[in-house]
Automatic annotation (TrEMBL):
The protein, known as: PTS lactose/cellobiose transporter subunit IIA
High-level lineage: Bacteria, Bacillati, Bacillota, Bacilli, Lactobacillales
Record GO terms (molecular function): transferase activity
Gene Ontology terms: biological process: phosphoenolpyruvate-dependent sugar phosphotransferase system
Species this chain originates from: Bombilactobacillus apium
Pfam families listed in its UniProt record: PTS_IIA
Length: 48
């Protein structure tokens, strides 16, 4: 169940990253991209 949670969080963060890029908000992009990558790593580690 936690895999789904982390994957969903990563997807939400990526959607926010795309919106930030369109709006020219680079600081949001950098913050959310790092958070999305961490969520993906956590989901991956739970899968193994």
């Amino acid at each position: 169940m936690q895999i789904i949670l982390h994957a969903g969080n990563a997807k939400s963060d990526v959607c926010e990253v795309l919106a930030a890029i369109k709006a020219g908000q680079i600081w949001v992009y950098e913050m959310k991209q790092d958070k999305a990558q961490e969520e993906i790593k956590q989901a991956h580690h739970l899968y193994q």
